[in-house]
């Protein structure tokens, strides 16, 4: 079955710096890759997503890149702010719509 | 409009008891997911409904877990003979058709003593 690996598990950056989180997936049938942000005690919320027919997508300070050949995708956050501090999850959705999440990256943005 | 809601928000039960967790998805969403999230982990897929049918139940850990969605809207996750290892936050999510953004509910925190 599908397996999603996410790195790093913890990331600490200075305010204004960039943060990069990387994920790999195993099922080549996966075609939808969302990223969710979860603040402490809250529900996960989608921040950006990408489909397999696109290599890159950007939304203001957030961008996602996808390499289908290598089966990996990455989240890039530029000009980080303290309110970006949270846990970020990548996920892979197969053609059957089963969604597998990574273990998460805890991002700390130091003011 | 109203988002995904889940009841109860917290449930404490004794080992061996039966529990039911309820999910009300966003109106009109045909796809509904159940996940289990343990502390410090990502949501673990349990089951996915498309309409009334369970399209994929491969994530249910064993036959003590069962879920239904009889009218294609509200879903109930049922756990028999609860064990301490079942303690976690159970999240429900819905999406319009299944191939796009999932909207999560606030979760039910289940504690088995």
Q: How would you sum up this structure, described in words?
A:
Chain A is mainly beta and 111 residues long. In chain A, 0% of the residues lie in helices and 57% in strands. In chain A, strands 2, 4, 5, 9, 10 and 11 form a 6-stranded mixed sheet that branches. The termini of chain A are far apart. The mean pLDDT of chain A is 94. Chain B is mostly beta strands and 113 residues long. In chain B, the strands form 2 sheets. In chain B, strands 2, 4, 5, 6, 9, 10 and 11 form a 7-stranded mixed sheet that branches. In chain B, strands 1-3-8-7 form a 4-stranded antiparallel sheet, with no helix packed on it. Chain B is globular. At the A-B interface, strand 5, strand 9 and strand 10 of A face strand 4 and strand 5 of B.
Structural class of the secondary elements of chain B?
A: mainly beta
Largest interface: A-B, 22 and 25 residues
Integer-rounded radius of gyration of chain B: 13 Å
Question: Given the structure, what is the number of helices of chain A?
Answer: 0
Give me the number of helical elements of chain B: 0
Order of helices and strands of chain A: EEEEEEEEEEE
Short description:
The complex is a heterodimer of chains A (111) and B (113). Chain A has 111 residues and is mostly beta strands.
Question: In terms of topology, how is this protein built?
Answer:
The complex is a heterodimer of chains A (111) and B (113).
Chain A: E1 4-7, E2 10-14, E3 19-25, E4 32-38, E5 45-51, E6 56-59, E7 62-67, E8 72-77, E9 86-93, E10 99-101, E11 105-110
Parallel strand pairs in A: 2-11
Antiparallel strand pairs in A: 1-3, 3-8, 4-5, 4-9, 6-7, 7-8, 9-10, 9-11
Chain B: E1 5-7, E2 10-13, E3 19-24, E4 31-37, E5 44-50, E6 53-56, E7 65-68, E8 75-79, E9 88-95, E10 103-104, E11 108-112
Any key phrases for this structure?
heterodimer, A: 111 residues, mainly beta, five-stranded antiparallel beta sheet, B: 113 residues, seven-stranded mixed beta sheet, four-stranded antiparallel beta sheet, globular
């Amino acid at each position: 079955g599908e397996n999603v690996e996410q790195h790093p598990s913890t990331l600490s950056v200075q305010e204004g710096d960039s943060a990069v989180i990387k994920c790999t997936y195993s099922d080549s049938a996966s075609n939808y890759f969302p990223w969710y942000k979860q603040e402490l005690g809250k529900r996960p919320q989608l921040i950006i997503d990408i489909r397999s027919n696109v290599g890159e997508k950007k939304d203001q300070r957030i961008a996602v890149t996808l390499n289908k050949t290598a089966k990996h995708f990455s989240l890039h956050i530029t000009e980080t702010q303290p309110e970006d501090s949270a846990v970020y999850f990548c996920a892979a959705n197969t053609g059957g719509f089963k969604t597998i999440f990574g273990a998460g990256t805890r991002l700390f943005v130091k003011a | 409009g109203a988002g995904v809601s889940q009841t109860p928000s917290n449930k404490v039960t004794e080992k061996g008891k039966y529990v039911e967790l309820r999910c009300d998805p966003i109106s009109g969403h045909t796809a509904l997911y159940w996940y289990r999230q343990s502390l410090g982990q990502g949501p673990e897929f349990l089951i996915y409904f498309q309409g009334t049918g369970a399209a994929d139940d491969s994530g249910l850990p064993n036959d003590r877990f069962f879920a239904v969605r009889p009218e294609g809207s509200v879903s109930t996750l049922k756990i028999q003979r609860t064990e301490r290892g079942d303690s976690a936050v159970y999240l429900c999510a819905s999406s319009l058709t299944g191939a796009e953004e999932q909207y999560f509910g606030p979760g039910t925190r289940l504690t088995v003593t």
